[in-house]
Design a protein that fits this description.
The protein is an alpha+beta fold. The chain has a domain at 439-515. It has helices at residues 4-9, 12-30, 41-46, 50-53, 60-69, 82-92, 96-108, 151-154, 157-164, 168-179, 182-198, 210-227, 235-254, 264-279, 286-304, 316-335, 342-358, 388-398, 401-407, 412-428, 504-511, and strands at residues 111-114, 117-121, 130-131, 136-137, 439-441, 446-450, 459-463, 481-486, 489-492. Strands 5-6-7-8-9 form a five-stranded antiparallel sheet, with helices on one face. Strands 1-2 form a two-stranded antiparallel ribbon. Strands 3-4 form a two-stranded antiparallel sheet. Helix 13 crosses helix 14 (264-279) and helix 17 (342-358) crosses helix 18. The two termini are 34 Å apart. The mean pLDDT is 93.
Length: 525
Amino acid sequence: MPNWKKIKELRFDELRVRSAQKLAALAERRGWSPLTKLPSDAELLSMLNVESIGRDLWSAQEVLEHFRSRTTPKVFASFHSQNSTVEQLRTRWPQAEQEILERADRMVQGQFDLLGFRSLSFGQPIDWHLEPVSEKRTPLIHWSRLEYLNAEIAGDKKIVWELNRHQYFLTLGQAYWLTGDERYAQTFAAHLESWMERNPPKLGINWASSLEVAFRSISWLWAFYFFKESPSFTSRTFMRALRFLYLHARHLETYLSTYFSPNTHLTGEALGLYYLGLLLPEFKDAARWREMGKRILLEQLPIHVRPDGVYFEQSSYYHRYTTDFYSHFLILSRANGDAVSGQVDTSLSSLLDHLMYITRPDGTTPLFGDDDGGRLVMLDHNPANDFRATLSTGAALFERADYKFVAAGPAEETLWLLGGAGLEILDQIVAKEPAKQSVAFESGGYYVMRDDWTPEANYLLFDCGPHGQANCGHAHADALSFDLAANGRTLLIDPGTYNYTGAKEWRDLVRSSPAHNTMTVDRHS
């Protein structure tokens, strides 16, 4: 039954947006929407902008050849020269190749490391709707009718979604570049075809979250560049994937989390639209997707980033997500001459400043508030509480000696994002320890102190801030909690997040005051 009291409290714009989304979902369920089926190849060709291509394309092979040969739009600098990128990786991180190949080989065998679980199997062929820990399998029904929050139905949905983000395609791509072994390309193509076969438009858990649709779109676009010259990446597969990406973009612009989760869900979805609109300009709708994504990212920036640079949900992990979102946005916009507000540079620097100052002497970061263990893209496999790769990229973007100092040198992720040129910029920067040892982030309420910037420093972080944003979903009851390291050794920590799905009493316990380094009065948080 509708909650009429809540409906009466809605503002007009929210009521309009929510109503439009409800009607769109209804039209999909009833079969009235054209977005419930894939466009044919002929329909797809009619959606392409001849002016942006320069000529008519009449076949799938011509579309693939156009993608392979085009020089614009500009993508991440690592793709400018495969040989140079591979050489830099082998020279600077000699152990990385073996680690990448070991992970990729297990992926070829159908074994995945996800969210702390090792060697998960989703069956052969992959069952894209299976949660293998609880052995729950969600039904293939319209996404709006799926109770994915119910663990009795979906198990831990995060595990299913983590696989279906397809971020492991990037590891397969790295392995392909390092070896030229077609097995990795064949696995990518087979998994892509399998996913498209078993996830019909709008059916099942993998259409239920717009953020997951955005992250999957980003992974596919990265993979296209890794495998674009592979004979295993056929014109048939490419055309079919373009048809799905068209529906992904249309789904995103229809079901944005404007009023559902206007946090990293909304900005992640906006980044997905920006990626799709920028990197697939051949679509007639591409400019609308790009501008919509750009507009949302710019609008949300002053909302999500407090004046002192702290992310408004009071969570260090989601702070890192936000920093990565805007780093990708800035890199792509700079590369393609897409002017964005100078506020992006200013706010991104503030986000990076906060990450720099809260970094512990051992290089890890306190996980205050929630963390979901995920990443925007998987370009390295550092521990979940090691955010220094983001600082490394920030050091190159803004030529900051203090970021480089705390990052402890260049990161593999920086190579994949900024290429050899980005590493050359880092090489020319003389690392310098940050100007301050004690910093007050007054808007966010974090106060961090240390006696020096050596690995043996004493370190203390106090959480004295507001209790998150909106319904405080990612914040914990951690007022006056603290994180402590002595002589470089971390002694007292925030427990982070137990999980998002499962026993509610455990989820609530780790968010409560007794689970933190703070006091309770009469056992109340």
